[in-house]
Design brief:
4 helices, 180 residues, 22% helix, 25% strand, alpha+beta
């Protein structure tokens, strides 16, 4: 008898969920913004400057790009790929973020919001987020993030996040789109 097997990685081996409870009335979008803002703004005493998607060329002139849109590893289980693709292909993903929720997420995470065109410090960390996309039950989310920490310092990533109902989001996959 011939037995064929394939190596596939299922949900349990790829997705790590948060055990932290989410606030009862928190929307999926606000919760996702909180995790991403916390990730990029953690430990930053100077604050972050939010950048609108149309304001900065993507990627910067001095950057190495990945050469294409986010792809998924072939070894993922079909159900995992299907849910991730639903989030990546959500028509809302990539559009202008919901600014009120993004600013609220920064306040909740203790990240100082910098504003204004003229900054007095030589290097101001900048963050650009798009609106996230979600699968049908909002347990998998996808968002594009661009982060600058200087003229030749930054990265652009597509993040996949997951959550269980009533729990916080957690980043579980990153695909680098560009790095400088």
């Amino acid at each position: 008898m011939l037995v064929l097997s394939a190596c596939t990685a299922g949900w349990g081996s790829m997705v790590r969920y948060s055990s932290a409870p989410a606030p009862r009335e928190e929307s999926a979008e606000l919760g996702l913004y909180r995790v991403v803002v916390g990730e990029y703004g953690r430990g930053d005493t100077g604050g972050l400057h939010l950048v609108r998607p149309a304001d900065v060329p993507d990627p910067p002139l001095v950057a190495v790009t990945s050469g294409g849109p986010a792809g998924l590893p072939g070894y993922w289980a079909d159900s995992l790929k299907r849910e991730a693709l639903l989030a990546l292909q959500d028509p809302a993903r990539g559009k202008e973020p919901t600014w009120g929720w993004l600013e609220q997420a920064m306040a909740l995470e203790g990240v100082r919001l910098r504003s204004g065109e003229r900054e007095r410090t030589p290097v101001v960390r900048k963050l650009r987020l798009t609106r996230p996309g979600f699968n049908a039950d909002s347990t998998v989310g996808a968002i594009d993030v661009d982060f600058w920490c200087g003229l030749a310092c930054g990265a652009g990533e597509t993040l996949l996040l997951a959550r269980r109902p009533g729990r916080r989001w957690r980043i579980w996959y990153r695909q680098v789109r560009w790095i400088s």
